[in-house]
Amino acid sequence: MTIKQLQYFLRIAELKSFSKAAVYLHVAQPALGLQVRKLEEELGVKLLNRHSRGVTPTEAGLLLRDHALVILRQVERAKLSVTDLSGPPRGKIAVGVTPTLNLVLATQLVERCRRDCPEVSLSIVDAMSEDLMEWVENDRLDLAFSYNPSAVPGLICEPLLTEDLCLIGPGTDKTEKPETARIDELAHLPLILTSATSGLRALVEDAARARNIDLNLSLEIDSVIATKEMVAKNFGYTILPLGAVRREVEDGRLTARRFARPALSRKMYLAYSASHPSSNAATAVREVMRQVVRENLASGDWSWRPAP
Question: What is the pTM of this model?
Fold first, then answer.
């Protein structure tokens, strides 16, 4: 098994097509097929199911794909460790961002990295906090923004800020309400929340339980975009930070009222591994992430406060 074979296999599995992978890799299609057959013969298993629409990985293929991702990242890290001995930060860095933060920070992060670290290539991955933490641990990501430091033990989690949460409602709701929301209101509203395993759902349920409130759960959706659309169409209310709905609030499609007395808030962390060696590029991007957060805190544009 060679690095080249793993690269070929991974690209075929991602694109689900030998022909598309051949074009992407600038390799003749018969050569790709030959390398995959060699892999299958060496491992003694079938890695790809071939059909009229392309190919899909078998169960063994999916397992090899996960290992290949880690192996190829380790190879890239080994190269970086050597080239980092001189010159500016360079190489590919994978950064995990939650859906709500992606709407606020991703563009700023890319712009700042291109300015300050022009030889660093960013890969932005959007997923739930719990998944991001797991991917940092298994080395699929170098760094991640996360709200759930307890999801995976053993990672370094730097507190960056405290984010206040808001009660999000449809813009069509014109009834007069106080400027801030109270947790007691949740007892009387149909709620659209994330699934039971998410940190945000646990935070809301803990707050309700502390005040002996039974939540009226209308829908479970693990998609910020879909949740916002459901609320805008008057299917229910949800709980999100202001940054996730700023544009819709300005357009009048949604309303947002910050929780007060008591506030409903969560901390955001910068997570990375203590056991995986850190490259100059990862260190540089980590500092860029801190700077971007500090600047947003100073601007006061979002419902953010410095972490205690």
Answer: 0.72
